[in-house]
């Protein structure tokens, strides 16, 4: 069984169970989109999967191996990479040094850079001096330099102009087409569903709606209902148009 599988996953934070009984499969070679309103538990779920915070129930499997109790380092070595929200570059290191922190070899570094040729001219620039879009490209490239089998992406579009978001989305589609599994948490629902395979809406820590991305995109009323289940008054679904 390839990819990431969550079974009845429960995750606490500050004494409260935020994610409850989540079942989710993010197969290799597909983009799995995770949507939901603010505070739904999306970041908490990804942090539990990557080992940043502990879960307190259920199971996490990567490529058929139970990693529920594995350390964050062991999960990374097993093929899991996490692009956290907030563009966490090492600001004082150059672009190339940021990549070499994670790269397993020179070939992996070059392969990661191939997705973002914009960074080629910025290799010797301190990462803290890059634009927001360039920093996001670097964070994604750094994750890819470890040659993961599964990539977790937490709102890569946060704080970026729509034109940069549109630049990033096809990269995730290409990664999946190359065989990597991508679990994409995204605020721009329309763009994410446009490049995804399966979609899920997380609402108050539980999956409320699932289906092929193409079908979910064609049924905005069902999406809106799933979002509104969290009590958030949405005038419209997030988009980048």
Explain how this protein is built.
With 241 residues, this protein is α/β, with parallel strands linked by helices. It has helices at residues 42-50, 72-78, 95-102, 106-114, 132-144, 162-177, 189-195, 213-217, 220-228, and strands at residues 4-13, 16-26, 31-35, 57-62, 65-66, 80-83, 150-154, 181-185, 198-203, 206-212. 34% of the residues lie in helices and 25% in strands. Strands 6-7-8-3-9-10 form a six-stranded mixed β-sheet, with helices on both faces. A four-stranded antiparallel β-sheet has the order 2-1-4-5, with helices on one face. It is globular.
Instruction: Please compute the radius of gyration using only Cα atoms.
Output: 17 Å
Major sheet characteristics: 6 strands, mixed
What would you call the structural class? alpha/beta
- Report the uncertain regions: 230-236
Number of strands: 10
Secondary-structure element pattern, one letter each: EEEHEEHEHHHEHEHEEHH
Q: What are the SSEs and their pairings?
A:
Blueprint: E1 4-13, E2 16-26, E3 31-35, H1 42-50, E4 57-62, E5 65-66, H2 72-78, E6 80-83, H3 95-102, H4 106-114, H5 132-144, E7 150-154, H6 162-177, E8 181-185, H7 189-195, E9 198-203, E10 206-212, H8 213-217, H9 220-228
Parallel strand pairs: 3-8, 3-9, 6-7, 7-8
Antiparallel strand pairs: 1-2, 1-4, 4-5, 9-10
Helix pairs in contact: 3-5, 4-5
């Amino acid at each position: 069984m390839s990819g990431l599988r969550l079974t009845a996953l429960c995750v606490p934070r500050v004494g409260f169970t935020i994610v409850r009984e989540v079942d989710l499969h993010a197969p290799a070679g597909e983009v799995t989109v995770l949507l939901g309103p603010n505070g739904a538990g999306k970041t908490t779920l990804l942090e539990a999967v990557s080992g940043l915070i502990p879960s307190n129930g259920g199971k996490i499997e990567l490529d058929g191996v139970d990693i529920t109790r594995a350390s964050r380092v062991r999960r990374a070595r097993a093929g899991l990479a996490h692009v956290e929200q907030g563009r966490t570059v090492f600001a004082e290191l150059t672009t190339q040094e940021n990549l070499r922190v994670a790269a397993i070899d020179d070939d992996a570094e070059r392969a990661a850079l191939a997705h973002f040729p914009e960074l080629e001219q910025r290799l010797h620039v301190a990462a803290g001096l890059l634009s927001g879009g360039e920093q996001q490209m670097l964070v994604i490239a750094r994750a890819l330099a470890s040659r993961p089998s599964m990539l977790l992406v937490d709102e890569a579009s946060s704080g970026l102009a729509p034109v940069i978001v549109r630049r990033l989305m096809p990269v995730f589609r290409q990664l999946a087409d190359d065989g990597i599994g991508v679990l994409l948490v995204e605020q721009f629902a329309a763009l994410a569903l446009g490049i995804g395979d399966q979609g899920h809406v997380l609402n108050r820590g539980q999956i409320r709606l699932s289906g092929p991305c193409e079908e979910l995109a064609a049924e905005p009323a069902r999406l809106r209902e799933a979002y509104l289940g969290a009590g958030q008054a949405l005038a419209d679904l997030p988009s980048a148009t």
